[in-house]
Amino acid sequence: MEVGTWAVVVAVAAAYMAWFWRMSRGLSGPRVWPVVGSLPGLVQHAENMHEWIAANLRRAGGTYQTCIFAVPGVARRGGLVTVTCDPRNLEHVLKSRFDNYPKGPFWHAVFRDLLGDGIFNSDGETWVAQRKTAALEFTTRTLRTAMSRWVSRSIHHRLLPILDDAADSKAHVDLQDLLLRLTFDNICGLAFGKDPETLAKGLPENAFASAFDRATEATLNRFIFPECLWRCKKWLGLGMETTLASSVAHVDQYLAAVIKARKLELAGNGKCDTVATHDDLLSRFMRKGSYSDESLQHVALNFILAGRDTSSVALSWFFWLVSTHPAVERKIVHELCAVLAASRGAHDPALWLAAPFTFEELDSLVYLKAALSETLRLYPSVPEDSKHVVADDYLPDGTFMPAGSSVTYSIYSAGRMKTVWGEDCLEFRPERWLSADGSKFEPHDSYKFVAFNAGPRICLGKDLAYLQMKNIAGSVLLRHRLAVAPGHRVEQKMSLTLFMKNGLRMEVRPRDLAPVADELGGADARATAPCA
Asked: Which residues, listed in sequence order, are joined to residue 344 by a DSSP beta bridge?
């Protein structure tokens, strides 16, 4: 190489390093390397990503900025990521400047093949139109009744018999897998009125469920690679992109047949004599407007994706936490029995177990709701989420947000900050959600507790999710004591949803309610005894 060429190379390298030094000085997050930015840190901490992000945020005071591509012209725009869990910043992004922080083109591109322009993958007017229709439906009592019907049937006809068999045979169960199957059957029933029966006896494989799982996994795989790479693999038909294409085709074919049959039924040409029998979301959308078949497919798929993993993952962490906190478990069981004794007028445990919970009984389970909320604070189903920055902006804490960059709000970290939740923020303490006398549930600010999102995009199914989780948790804990199987390690899986990496292997033992019944009976006798 000639001297002149060497001089140019050295000059370019020196100029780059001078630029890199100035750029990196303005970043407060993890170490940034030349060219590759913070990617080495992300790779190094891939197995404990959420804890690593939380530790970075604690050191930085709740917000930091990092660069994933340290290249001039990119580093301060598309390569810049702001990470925050500050409640003031969350309210700014999710509510005050909502229009400036959409999901953005990257998120939409990743999920486009699976979810299309559905409610969870769209912005602007497309999102507004679907949100309005969905919001009207989620406020109806008939949808709540439909959810309760599907859930109660799955619990009493499928989940409980499996747990009974496991208790009798002293076999272990993968509770996470059972809960995933249960919530998938439920959400399919609620979304389009069909039961895939994945929790049926023998835990059979279902072609639609398998295709949906493969499509979801292949879609999430896109987050690992740069967009240009997965687009190239898609064009060439390589790797997981081939799996995604074939799985989406299978899912679309299945839903197309469902939609065709439902249209005939709603028109009075099918086997059903009345449209009133169809209370699922798909039928409701059909009756509300003129949606194309493709749009209706995306409606169903979006709600399935949102409704399956979130509740089952939350319940998995809940059962693990309760099994390792016996005092909390005792309080939950005591509340369950007290509510049933009051509503069913007896202290006979057989009567408590004879029928599913009513709405009124579920609404009375205050401590159980607190325990579920405390679970979601520590282990939110979606631990991290991100937004695209449309125009230059400043966060309330003074952080500059350049257009074209992105902001990740760490829901996992938001529940683990001492500055927000106090010195005991890492403790599982349901009492923090209760009034001083323990009789009322007291929700926290939605920008401190972001497990159900916040602002205009707050989860429409929040109340239904609590209804489902309370029903499942109460039905199981009334009948069984659960303990983690010996040797089983509970670890987080690095995914968009906070799955347990190795599942949740549990021992199942029958629960004896007689001591609780005696305790409640004694308390009633003391309360009604005449004064001396």
From this structure: none
Q: Is 423 helix (H, G, I), strand (E, B) or coil?
A: coil
**Alpha carbon distance 182, 179 (integer Å):** 5
Angle, alpha carbons 26-30-35 (nearest 5°): 75
Q: What is the pLDDT of residue 270?
A: 47
Find, among 89, 65, 86, 87, the residue nearest to 77 by Cα.
65
Residue whose structure tokens are 């507790």:
449
Sheet holding 480-484, edge to edge: 172-174, 505-510, 480-484
Strands 80-84 and 406-410: parallel
Please tell me whether 531 is known to bind a ligand: no
Percentage helix, strand, coil for the chain under 3-state DSSP, each rounded to 5: 60, 10, 30
Q: Residue 288: which H helix or E strand, with range?
A: helix 281-288
> 208-212, long-range: CB within 8 Å, 24+ apart, which pairs?
208/250, 208/251, 208/254, 209/184, 211/247, 211/248, 211/250, 211/251, 211/254, 212/247, 212/251, 212/301, 212/304
Domains and CATH numbers, the chain: 85-111+133-528 (1.10.630.10)
Q: Give the bridge partners for 434, in sequence order.
A: 441
Q: What is the DSSP string of 348-368?
A: -HHHHTSSPPPHHHHHT-HHH
Question: 84 — phi, psi (to 5°)?
Answer: -145, 155
> Which residues, 6+ apart, have CB-to-CB distance to 1 below 8 Å?
9
Mean residue pLDDT of the chain comes to 88
pLDDT greater than 70 at residue 2: no
Which runs of consecutive H residues, i.e. helices, occur in 92-221?
104-115, 124-138, 141-154, 160-169, 175-192, 207-221
Q: Closest by alpha carbon to 287, among 127, 116, 133, 129?
A: 133
Rg of the chain taking only CA atoms, in angstroms? 26
Q: State the pairing for strand pair 384-388/172-174.
A: unpaired
- pLDDT at residue number 523: 58
| Cα–Cα nearest to 444, from 456, 455, 434 | 434
Distance CA 464, CA 140 (A): 11
Q: Across the strands, what pairs with 393?
A: 401
Q: What's the CA angle centered on 167, arms 163 and 168, to 5 degrees?
A: 120
Residue 532 has pLDDT above 50, yes or no: no
Phi, psi of 257 (to 5 degrees): -65, -40
* 529 or 227, greater pLDDT: 227
Reported as a pLDDT band with limits 50, 70 and 90, residue 273 is very low
